[in-house]
Design a protein that fits this description.
With 492 residues, the chain is mostly helical. It has one domain. Helices cover 82% and strands 0% of the residues. The protein is globular and about 60 Å long.
């Protein structure tokens, strides 16, 4: 019998090929976007960052938890094609209505989003979201069928086309005196690259039957609604800070600077914060790859009598891995900062360790969240996410006018930490999994200790500092190896 953890690791590696390699390649676009050649002014990059915050927001809203509902009902029902057709058709109809609304009301929406002079941004945004959302279910089908290689090929092709078009349009066609043209090119490249997904998955589109089983759809929506609500609240926690940062900054300084200058200042704050956030995304890159494989894996393992032992082992490995990511990035910021070549952005580097830890908490929360999905108590996911969203909005509204993007970073840290703790406490009450808290305390404590010690040591920038800092990283790797090697012989 095959080892389930090895199977999860193998699928994570394949999904990671598309997610990790892809995001790393996209990460390499950051030096281009933040260079003086493309967006010399952080405000112009701030426009792109905010638009993509909206893309992430609408992607969650317009898939409304149907991917997870599809996995759930696929395991419970015999007619797999029927389940897929109804979940896919539901997403297709909702997104068709969304795109129609965007096309009809794009000017009004642009004015509300402070892009009144550029309503075309809203049209581009709507097209990107629609293509990506309707491709989500066919891609979920590949994951359910464990066709990880085809999934990776599609995602890598999409990313490759996007990067190729970005390089061609921005390095050859782009007029650097017209930054608006750069924003157009980035959005157009995304649209063309997104079309790769339905091109690969055209058979699923051709085989769709335009007939809804309302009983099945109602049952799926009943299951997915709390997840959709949780996802909606979750994306508020993840992206709304950039939207609030722009709007609250613009409102705060409107009287002092004038409306247009205040908006520009808000966009600059978003640009600086978002560029620094990119450096914290190395943790989320790992999370994305892991998440693609983990969700169907956990559902499949739920039928095993040893499932809790498996879940505990996975969590131990996971905690060690994410804190290793935290150390590796935070102790090498002197290197990573050059991925943002324009020094106008560097003032934001101070928030990177805060955001890295916030994303570590997020990853642990995501790993824990399987308890309410497996038990069908998805309402708790909604409660946790909504509570986080309330804190995100409230704290950002209070503190952004005072502290700017520093407030965004600390609010993210507080909210994700709170969600991690809340999920653990609720999970132990309603679907207990005996996680090894001693290892969590050990791994997190040692990682933070190494970070603070390395930060307190006053070493000038250069090879000596790099070597000393990475000795701490190596020591941490040795700790994980020493603690987890015996796992081959024992259960926890």
């Amino acid at each position: 019998m095959s080892n389930p953890i090895k199977k999860l690791a193998g699928q994570t590696a394949v999904y990671g090929l598309s997610s990790i390699v892809g995001r790393l390649l996209n990460f390499l676009l950051v030096p281009l976007y933040t260079s003086e050649y493309v967006f010399k002014d952080p405000a112009d990059y701030g426009v792109v960052a905010e638009l993509y915050a909206w893309v992430a927001f609408f992607m969650v809203l317009l898939t409304f938890g149907m991917e997870t509902a599809y996995f759930k009902f696929l395991n419970d029902r015999e007619d797999k094609k029927h389940v897929f057709n109804n979940s896919f058709l539901s997403v297709l109809l909702v997104n068709g209505a969304f795109l129609l609304i965007v096309l009809v009301f794009h000017q009004s929406l642009a004015e509300k989003m402070l892009y009144g002079d550029h309503p075309e941004y809203i049209i581009f945004l709507g097209i990107i979201v629609t293509i990506d959302a309707i491709s989500a279910l066919p891609l979920a089908k590949l994951r359910a069928q464990e066709r990880a290689k085809k999934f990776a090929i599609i995602q890598l092709t999409n990313i490759g086309v996007n990067i190729g078009l970005n390089l061609f349009l921005l390095l050859i066609v782009f007029d650097k005196e017209n930054p608006v043209q750069g924003i157009w090119f980035i959005l157009i490249a995304n649209i063309l690259a997104s079309l790769v997904k339905p091109a690969f998955l055209y058979k699923d589109f051709l085989q769709i039957v335009f007939k809804l089983d309302f009983t099945l759809v109602k049952a799926m929506l009943r299951y997915s609604f709390p997840l959709a609500l949780a996802g909606f609240a979750f994306i508020i926690n993840e992206t709304l800070d950039r939207v609030l940062l722009k709007h609250l900054t613009a409102n705060t300084f409107a009287d002092e600077l004038g409306r247009e200058a205040a908006i520009k200042l808000g966009e600059a704050q978003v640009g600086i914060y978002s560029a620094s956030y990119k450096l914290a995304m190395l943790v989320t890159i790992f999370l994305q790859a892991y998440r693609y494989a983990a969700e169907p894996f956990f559902f499949a393992e739920s039928k095993s009598k040893d499932r809790n032992k498996t879940y505990v082992k996975v969590m131990n490995y996971f905690v060690g891995a994410v804190f290793l990511c935290f150390l590796g990035v935070s102790l090498n910021l002197d290197i990573f900062k050059y991925f943002i070549p324009n020094p106008n952005f560097w003032e934001g580097l101070k928030v990177v360790p805060i955001l890295l830890l916030a994303n570590v908490f997020l990853g642990i929360y995501i790993n824990q969240s399987i308890w309410y999905k497996l038990s069908g108590q998805t309402k708790f996911g909604a409660y946790i996410a909504i509570g986080g969203a309330v804190f995100t909005i409230t704290l950002n509204v209070i503190f952004i006018p005072i502290y700017g993007y520093i407030a965004c970073a600390w609010v993210t840290f507080i909210v994700y930490g709170g969600q991690m703790v809340a999920s653990y406490l609720l999970g132990q009450k309603h679907y207990p999994i005996p996680y090894n808290l001693r290892k969590f305390v050990l791994y997190s404590g040692v990682a933070l200790f190494f970070f603070f010690v390395a930060s307190w040591i006053n070493i000038p920038e250069g090879w000596t500092k790099i070597i000393v800092h990475n000795l701490f990283v190596v020591l941490y790797i040795l700790l994980i190896w020493f603690m987890e090697k015996p796992m081959k012989k024992v259960h926890t």
